[in-house]
Structure formats: C-alpha cells, structure tokens
Amino acid sequence: MSTPARPLRVALDVSATRLGSAGVARTIVQLADALDARADVDVILLGLGTPPKSGSAARRALALRLDLEWYPRGVRREAAARGADVLHLPLPRGPLSPGSPPTIITVHDLAVVRYPETLSGWNRHYSQRTLRRVLTAADAIVAVSDDTAADLAAFAPALSDRVHVIPNGVEEFWSVPAEAPDVAAPYVLAVGTPEPRKNLARLVQAMQRRQTAGAPEQLVLVGADGWGVDELPTVPWLHRLGRVDDRTLRSLYQHAAAVAVPSLHEGSGLPVLEAFAAGAPVAAAQVGALPETAGDAAILFDPLDVRALAAAIDQAIAERDRLIPLGRARAASATWSAAAERYVALYNSLH
Questions:
Q1: Taking Cα atoms as reference points, which of 110, 140, 103, 143 lies closest to residue 127?
Q2: Using an 8 Å Cβ cutoff, are 256 and 286 in contact?
C-alpha cells in the first residue's frame, strides 16, 4: 500500500497584521483561514506577535525591525527551520536574494512606482530601494488584479513569466444580516486607512456640494492609523469613526445609502467587494483595478472631478435597486476558497 502524500507545508508570513488590521492585513487573515480549511496544506504562520499600540515608539521600532531584519533574512531562515516547502510573503517585502525554500510574493499594487507621493516617507524610501530586488529574488509573483499585473510588466518586464493573477476574495460574513448601526441615517460610507491616495478631501468637497444642494445624507468615514491627510472640516454632517470592529463595519455597510470609494489608485479594492457582499450600492473611482473589481455593478467616476464624484454618489443612491443585485452576484463569485485553490496550485508548482 502506498503512503499517502503528506500535506504541503506552506510558511505564510503574517507579520503585517501586527501593524494594522485593514487592507492587506485583512486579506492575509482571510487567506490564512482559507488555506487552513484545506486538508492538503499545513499552514505555518510566521511573524506572529502582539500588535504594539498605534502610534507608539514600539510600533515604529517593530516596523523598522521587520523591514531591516525580518524580511531580508529572518523570515526565510525561520521558514527553513520549521521545515516549510514554500514561503509565501503576502506583500512585496521579502528576501533580497534567491534561496530555499522557494518564495512567493503577493503584490497588491505598485503605488510606490506610479504614485510615490501618496506613500509615507519611510515606506516610499524602503520600497523604492528594495522592490526590484525582492521581485527578482522571488520564484513566483502574484498580482491581485490584471491592472497590477500590467503595472508589474511595465516595471519589470523580464519577470513577466513569473507573474500570476489571483484576485482577492471576500468573506460571506459581510452578507449576514446585521442590525442598524448607532449612526444617524441616511449616510454615505467610506472605508480605508486615511492617507493621501484615498482622496478624502475631494470626497468631503463632493459631499459639501450635495449638502448645499439639499441632499440629506451625512458622511461616515471609517479607518485609522493614517497619515498625510489634510485637516478635514468640522461640520455636523461629517463623522470620523476611526477603527471599528468587523461587526460594526458590516452594519455600516449594510445600512449605508451608498459606499464611496474615491481612491486615486487601488490595486484591488477590497471595500468594493465588501460593500457588494453587504448589499450596498457603490460609487467607485475609475482608476487602477477598481473598474476591474466593480465591473458593471458600481457607478464609476473621475476621482479628480469633485462634481463627477458628487453626481456618482447621487446616481448610486438613485439606482440602488439595480446595483445591489449586481453587486451581490459579483461578490458571490469572489471567494477566498477559490483564491486558496489557485494559491495551492502555485505552491505545488514550486515544490
């Protein structure tokens, strides 16, 4: 009798979840869960630890330690010590030279190349110095969208044969009915870490236009640990909730008059998928991967045009009965189990 093949041992770096809980950190947790549900994979989580307090010296020290020691050397050494067959780094940080075990890097966007002014000083400096070396050292590169794959092809054409497109998924959690949040309705919701490329100043200007025109919706902003965002006005219709737990966020999505995603660039657009799953109409910027993620289920607009942004929000609210079923169907086709299936096939191709 033949011996059953043992599960593939995949070392997944989750250290980024110690520095935040939104965006890339959220996708790491969801992918880890999807991989862990499979019998053919033994997931080894690397980089676990207690998250330091936001804005603290300990958090800044951790970020430097990860960038200067963990990603270039420590993560591969730990993966090898724990018997991993494959090392997966779910963001473009990693070893600067080839080695064992083979390495997969996931790239969510190339904002550092296309829009470097929208990144914080250290992140911009470090990424510009290391990105090409990290990609060159990787055995495979995953782009989360065709848009990001195209950016990678333009940035490093010699590496195009290593690039694989595996879109992010979205959890069924967001579609589970939730009670109304403790926020006065109606409101427009925007979700994301406050930073320059989220384009919040223009969103506020667009909402001011709508307020002046008599629209009843207030603006609710969710997201924390940001930087470089101009001071937003203190007005009765603007509510900044900071970080909220997932149950609160689900409630906010489900009861929003519309969800606005006005970013200047996104490599995927997780809030779009979450809003779709939650049954909210979406107005999204016509840039980066947002049109690819949204398809025909959202109202698209030029994020540099405040008037167009305001009009798109109006249209999303007016057409919610048409948009919501389209969004739900799009979210249903974007599962983490499907993403995990494609990742496992890629892992096996390297082992």
A1: 110
A2: no
In three-state secondary structure terms, 6 is coil
CA–CA distances in Å: residue 325 to residues 13, 73, 251, 295: 36, 47, 18, 13
Distance separating alpha carbons of residues 13 and 70, to the nearest angstrom: 10
Burial of 92 (0-12, 13-18, 19+ CB in 10 A): buried
- Domains, the chain, ranges and CATH? 8-169+335-350 (3.40.50.2000), 172-332 (3.40.50.2000)
pLDDT for residue 143 is more than 80 = yes
Is there a contact between 165 and 288 (Cβ–Cβ < 8 Å)? no
Q: What is the helix (H) or strand (E) element at residue 259, kind and residue range?
A: strand 258-261
Q: Greatest CA span in the chain, whole angstroms? A: 77
Number of helical H runs and strand E runs in the chain: 13, 12
Confidence grade of residue 1 (pLDDT, cut at 50, 70, 90):
very low
